[in-house]
Amino acid sequence: MKLTLAQLNLTVGDVNGNVARMVAAARQAAWAGSQLVVFPELAVSGYYPGDLLEEPAFLRQVEAGLQSLRAASRELPELTWVFGAPLMREGPGKQLENGLLVLKGGEVLLRYAKQLLPTYNIFDERRHFEPGPDVAKVLRIGSAQVGLLICEDGWNDDGADYGVNPFERLRDAAPDFVISINASPSNIGKREQRHQVFTAASRRNGLPILYVNHVGGHDQLVYDGASFAVEPEAGVVFEADRFVESVRTLGFVDGRFVEPDGSGLKRPEATGLSAMAFYRAQIVLGLRDYARRCGFTKAVVGSSGGIDSALTLALAAEALGADNVVGITMPSSFSSSGSVTDSEALCRNLGIQLLNHPIHGAVEALKAQFAGSFDTPMQGLTLENLQARVRGTILMAYSNANGHLLLTTGNKSEVSVGYCTLYGDTNGGLGLIGDLYKTEVFALSRHLNEAAGRELIPMAILDKEPSAELAPGQRDIDSLPPYPVLDEMLKVLIEGGRLASWERDAAEARMAALRETAEGRALTEKIARMIQRSEYKRRQAPPLIRLRARAFGQGRQMPIAASFRACCHE
């Protein structure tokens, strides 16, 4: 038989648009001679609709979308459709289930409800859905018996997370292959994790599996696509492109996935993208879709002449086009000459416009007015933060006046410990590098230069010692440990067991070495306290594009007003 994987970039809440994209892909599948077209989890609504699922008007739109799909399937009577949608249910519990429907000729041939509803990290499906019963759903499509799963249902074959293993029932039903529809968000190492989990499940149960995933950016999350096919003996035999839509037709003959003409498939690369290439692709797609879905075509970035704003500008130019990005340099009396000249060189290299708006006059006027109104001189941290907030105000004013999306430039190292100014450099609509540690910011900047074969980001910026430039002679290292040390500490304190093994070993070794001395233990406890005390800042910061297994935002739920003190030297 021939079957088509429709790895689509679907929009949360845009039922009409999603249905239109699904119908177009189904027509493409029918034209290719497929008997089956497969779409991702919750394709009709987009993933994840959140509390839209509590809006009656939205649920009516979903129902209308389902009727439109039934009508479209009548126009393609030889094609079977498999897709996900939120479905109304009867009985006690939640009124909805995360469902899978099989359509053919306008009729519903099969309905399946997701059994395992994740409630960890970024997921909260039990908030809206009732889990389905512990049953296997198998359907004959063409010449094959096909089993059906929805995302998390396929992740528990080792029994580690749930008391139910849907693969057990499927194995007993003995389908020829299994379809898994998914909304699996991307982070570093996730592709390899999917391959490992589903290869093991395929081998244990003797079942070929077709895994179809979403692609595209939704708020903080990015879905990388990378749909794949896996066989019990051969492992992963096919993988769709990453970070782009893909409507791809395969054959299934004698228990094997093949090309439509019956020839063998070209196996995917086992290693995939390098870490830096992955970060770049994920950020670019995340920004591009965030801007498009929110109605922005242009972006503005405050250009300090430092590495964080430089990398943000470079990634924004790649995602939106250089003509659609504006940099603004805002020198103060404490700014080095390089804050302007390095910004000029950077923007010249990137081909973007740079505007100059000095802040000295505004800062002095506010400083004088503050002293006059409150009989208190503005100095020290108050004056430092004022400069950042004046800059933030200017950037927001430019955004309001010109309709540009303001991109914030904080990195994960600084955001972790609160080395940022609320309502100042935290202003913005989206953070591109907020899930990159400072050492990774430098590494990704060098990667962009190497990939371009020239200096997009000037070496003067790459070689510059990091500084907020809010006080005379200020350096980051005066307030924080060196970034190579700090970043390894932060990985353990924030991500811990969610780190990939190759990162975890190095980070834990660094932490163990620190714990051997009283000074190191004191430093570790200091950093842990700084992380905890900065939660209120992060809660008010813009969303950031998630790159790692544990990012700040919806996947990390920590209280603000807490007094827990972790023991960092156990």
Automatic annotation (TrEMBL):
Q: Where is the active site?
A: E41 (proton acceptor), K114 (for glutaminase activity), C151 (nucleophile)
Q: What is its EC number?
A: 6.3.5.1
PANTHER family this protein is in? GLUTAMINE-DEPENDENT NAD(+) SYNTHETASE, NH 3 /GLUTAMINE-DEPENDENT NAD + SYNTHETASE
Every copy of the CN hydrolase domain together lies at 1-255
Q: What pathway, per the record?
A: Cofactor biosynthesis; NAD(+) biosynthesis; NAD(+) from deamido-NAD(+) (L-Gln route): step 1/1
* InterPro entries, A to Z: C-N_Hydrolase, C-N_Hydrolase_sf, Gln-dep_NAD_synthase, NAD/GMP_synthase, NAD_synthase, Rossmann-like_a/b/a_fold
- Its top-level enzyme class, in one word, is ligase
- The name on file for this protein is Glutamine-dependent NAD(+) synthetase
Its taxonomic path starts at: Bacteria, Pseudomonadati, Pseudomonadota, Betaproteobacteria, Burkholderiales
Residue positions binding L-glutamine: Y120, S184, K190
